[in-house]
Amino acid sequence: MGLGTMIGAGIFVLPSVAAQDAGPASIISFIGGGVISLLAALSLSELATGMPKTGGSYYYVNHSLGTIFGCIAGFSMWIGLMFASAFYMRGFGRYVASTPQNIAIAALVMAAILIAVNYRGVKETGFLQNIIVILLLVLIFVFIGAGFFKVDLSNLDPFVSKGWGNVFTAIGTLYVSFIGFEVIASSAEEIKNPRKNLPLSMIAAVLTPTALYALVMFISIGTLSTPSLAQSQIPVADVAEIFLGPIGATAMIIGAAFATISSANASILSASRINFAMGKDKILSNWLNQIHKRYRTPYRSILVTGIFILGLIALGVKIDTLSRIAGFSYLITYILVHISLIVMRETKADDYNPSFQVPLYPVVPILGIISSIAIVALMSSTVQAVGTAIIVVGII
């Protein structure tokens, strides 16, 4: 489940954005995103085994810090997933079309299809998800294996070509790639032996993609060079064509299409369920909670979510802006998750008996809070303004 949402659109779409933001040192940006996610995954693991309820971060924050902070977390996750969905669909459009108009049309059509699929309630089976993940992993390993010996190290010099400030700022842009491990915490009630399996799976679901992202970025810049990669609409396919030929490029385009569709579908599903859960807790209007008589889905919640996603695509919001706002939203949520862990530990609540405890407490949650705040502080004023507006609306 974790790899299915993490090995997705980010690895196929973001190399060009990362190269433009931080140059060769964007490899470090991906690793930095992984470290921040690992800290969040550890805090989430303890909260999930202490409060094994469906709802993930929203539930833990709402339960430990109260309704206002729960609303900020839930609203941030909802908005973050909608921006992420629009980002995935714009990425899909890039891989299947060439002109800006056709990219937007392809993104809108596929997003509408996925919204309709979720409206009807056709569920993605575990078997199909596993097949997609295995195919994507095979493609990525072939890409890494074939490209590793084609890297020209001179393309990585100078390594920090755009300054350390841009390296850390890029983490916020890339963080949309790391929001998938949340689904594991949301399934805590259904995991066998959660004390062992939940933290292990969450840690693996962060470390594995982090290593793959860094290697893909190393090969991409080492093969294509920073300026060429930054200009690429379909970065992984363009790089693959150099050492795998047209067949390799076509395989990467197909893989990217599957990855972006899978990621967007999972995000639309999750986003609609978050505002459904908030409605159930009487934080949002019960109007959103109406269940379709035939399809048994929260169809109003899905439609509101879908209209917002289609609007973001239709307005032509830039792909890097979509990823940054999604990253900002989730970083705010994980700051609250770390605080929730500290509150639950220090208050020693009777109903909180986690089977897994974060090592090096309180260092891990404090580092998580500081690092997340630092990345948010380095983001552009536009992203900060939109993110602040999301928080304010959540409070209201």
Automatic annotation (TrEMBL):
Location(s) in or outside the cell: Cell membrane
Membrane-spanning segments: 29-48, 60-89, 101-119, 131-151, 163-185, 197-222, 242-264, 301-319, 325-344, 356-379
Superkingdom per UniProt: Archaea
Keywords linked to the UniProt accession: Cell membrane, Membrane, Transmembrane, Transmembrane helix
Family annotation (InterPro entries): AA/rel_permease1, APC_superfamily
GO molecular function, one term: transmembrane transporter activity
GO cellular component, one term: plasma membrane
Topological relation to the membrane, as annotated: Multi-pass membrane protein
Primary localization class, coarse: membrane
Protein name: Amino acid transporter fused to UspA-like domain
Organism: Methanohalarchaeum thermophilum
